[in-house]
Automatic annotation (TrEMBL):
It comes from Oceanobacillus iheyensis (strain DSM 14371 / CIP 107618 / JCM 11309 / KCTC 3954 / HTE831). It is a single-pass membrane protein. The gene is tatA. Gene3D superfamilies: 1.20.5.3310. One of its GO terms (molecular function) is protein transmembrane transporter activity. Belongs to the TatA/E family. It comes from the Bacteria. It holds the Pfam family TatA_B_E. The chain crosses the membrane at residues 6-23. This is Sec-independent protein translocase protein TatA. It is found in: Cell membrane. Signal peptide: none annotated.
């Protein structure tokens, strides 16, 4: 995973910068949108892998 080398201090720094840039009112909305996007990407990846495995058989 891409974020495996960030660590806790890096994560805190990213959150502080995001808070400064976007403000406290926008962060929940951005987090929700990111979560939805990640969920859709995961579902699409699983569908592709499922289709690929069916074609192999």
């Amino acid at each position: 995973m891409m974020f495996s080398n960030i660590g806790f201090p890096g994560l805190i720094l990213i959150l502080i910068v995001a808070l400064i840039v976007f403000g406290p009112n926008k962060l929940p909305e951005i987090g929700r949108a990111f979560g939805t996007t990640l969920k859709e990407f995961k579902n699409a990846s699983q569908d592709i892998m499922s289709d690929h495995n069916k074609k192999k058989q």
